[in-house]
Amino acid sequence: MSALVVALVGCGSVLAEDDGGPLVDTPLGPVLGGWMKSEAGAQYASFEGIPFSAPPVGKLRFGAPQPVEPWTETLNASGRVLVKCTQYGYMSAGGNPEISGSEDCLYLNVYAPKNSKREPKAVMMWIYGGSLTAGSNQFQEYGPMRFIDQDVIIVSPNYRLGSLGFTSLGIDEAPGNQGFMDCVAALEWINLNIESFGGDPGRVTIFGESSGSWIVSYLNLSPMAKGLYQRAIMQSGGLFNPYWTPRTEADGVEMSTLMTTVFNCTTSPKVDPYAALDCLQNLPREMIQSSGDWGDDETYQIQKILRPTGIIGREFLPENPVDMMAKGDYNHIDLMVGMTKDEGLLQTYQLELNPQLYLGVQFTYKIFGPMFLFGRFGSYDITEQDLAMADEITKYYLGDKNFLGVFPFDADHFDNITAMIGDAYIYYGGHKQAEWAAAHGDNVYQYKFSFKGTYGFANVFGLDNSQYGVCHADELYYYWKPYWNKALLQMPEREDLLSRRLLTSWANFAKFGDPSIPEDNISWDQLSADNHVYMNIDDDWGMELSQDYLDRMAMWDIAYEFPTGNTLPPSPGLKVGAGKEKFWTRPRPQL
């Protein structure tokens, strides 16, 4: 074996070449990578499939992540790794989706530029989205060929999904928040190992989109992540969104009691949590993960009963996060928060595809209103307060009820419905987290992504993208290459310019804590407690604060009340359906 020093990528760290590939000696053991070319033709080192936690299998199923065993033989991370965590349907478009992935999935990828600079590089840890039920860190889903030209190191971990990643039995051996804690373990790995790859453990930025942004939001509240990163970017999602709030541990135990009941375990977490854990640990992974598809026929199985979410009450999230933010008891880091202009389109595209839903929703709005706005899955978990809040909020967007006593939930109000769902789903929670952080003196930046490009999520559903606004996730085409298997997308010049600006801005924030782009005369102002300005990202970039935005957020401040305790009644009697007919789907983004 010949080792030739070919690049110095960080202060005191040597990247060596072994039989043509970069060789890194980490505190856990030696790792061999491969060389790849960026979009600009620069060479970078690729390391895929590095373990950062022990496999969460057997008696470790449902537990917090455990340390990985060091190794002495060289770990070959030079090739493509297709590992993903166990998931149900994998963003399937319907039909009969199957369980895919593996429980042995806690591996991460590292992509590092090759050059002769000695200064340690800023590190950006990407957390993929997928409703906490799907997705992975695979190269073909979120390839770094664009980002790596910004001279940053990209790290992307897998994390547990669905019921295997978010089930609480009210005990330390099954505390809930497992997928979130996997991301903490990845951050711990970065702090221990990233210097070996030329990275700066003192300049770590976490960023994610959709449920990946929810994870970023949770990490900002968790004492377990304190000191492990310095900056965070939330792209379209956060734990304060009314549509997807955390549960108390008691509510989490109600949900796992439903699971053990349906699976015919001899006991439940409320009676004997350790015996219930033993039962669940000995069931096939396919059975466990399929529980994530359970729905209620009242809402056409749209909202899932066991939808993954955070659990309040143990080490990861010790208190109600609203109280933690109010007290300033959270991780004070530099923060970017953003949304696409028309976030709600991801949901309301389904109304375009299934216009028969309009009438059904109109006349059962006491069920669907709380579902769209607060993530309820049926009359089982809808309260009188939910009904009152849903009425007040819906009236703001759609106007008064008509002579039949129903809101005009119809095609003529498509844009209003989209705005309402988008505010519940993304806007209000991001607004509040930014507002509260700024009030405590943190450096906070916000943006609205208004750029309308060639590609978008409308294409995924077979719709004409040019006829709609800027949907949830539409911006991702400009960050990643490949993006969901698409590496050869041809973009017009204005979109190439946008992509360069986005990547430069995000990298500048990671490097310097400021997303401004001086070479393009783009100056990005921080927001403050009394001036909630944001960058409007379009062909031209400029600071903005629209009255419509202020009015909408002020209405939510008045009409909405965050939950403060348990939200679920006892679970016996709840009917579980498997979804024979599914109107609401989220297919994988293929063009």
Integer-rounded radius of gyration: 23 Å
The count of DSSP E runs of length 2 or more, i.e. the number of strands, is 22
The CATH homologous superfamily name of the largest domain equals Alpha/Beta hydrolase fold, catalytic domain
Number of domains: 2
Pairing-aware structural class of the strands and helices?
alpha/beta
Distance between the termini: 45 Å
Helix content: 25-40%
Uncertain runs with pLDDT below 50, 5 residues or more?
A: 1-14, 90-95, 579-591
| Overall CATH class of the largest domain | Alpha Beta
Total DSSP helices:
15
Shape: globular
Strand residue percentage: 15-25%
Major sheet description: 11 strands, mixed
Q: Write the CATH architecture name of the largest domain.
A: 3-Layer(aba) Sandwich
Looking across the biggest beta sheet, what order are the strands in?
5-6-10-12-11-15-16-19-20-21-22
Q: What is the arithmetic mean of pLDDT?
A: 92
What does this 3D model show about the protein?
There is one protein chain. With 591 residues, the chain is of the alpha/beta class. It has 2 domains: 3-112 and 121-346 and 422-559, Rossmann fold; 347-421, no CATH class. The protein is built from 15 helices and 22 strands. The protein has helices at residues 162-165, 178-193, 211-221, 249-262, 273-281, 285-290, 321-327, 345-353, 357-363, 365-374, 384-398, 414-439, 457-460, 493-512, 547-559; strands at 3-10, 13-18, 21-26, 29-32, 34-37, 43-51, 75-76, 87-88, 99-100, 107-113, 121-127, 153-157, 168-171, 174-175, 199-209, 231-235, 247-248, 311-312, 334-340, 444-449, 534-537, 541-544. The protein has an 11-stranded mixed beta sheet with strand order 5-6-10-12-11-15-16-19-20-21-22, with helices on both faces. Strands 1-2-3-4-7 form a 5-stranded mixed beta sheet, with no helix packed on it. Strands 8-9 form a two-stranded antiparallel ribbon. A hairpin with a 2-residue loop joins strand 3 and strand 4. The longest helix has 26 residues, at 414-439. It is globular, with a radius of gyration of 23 Å. The two termini are 45 Å apart.
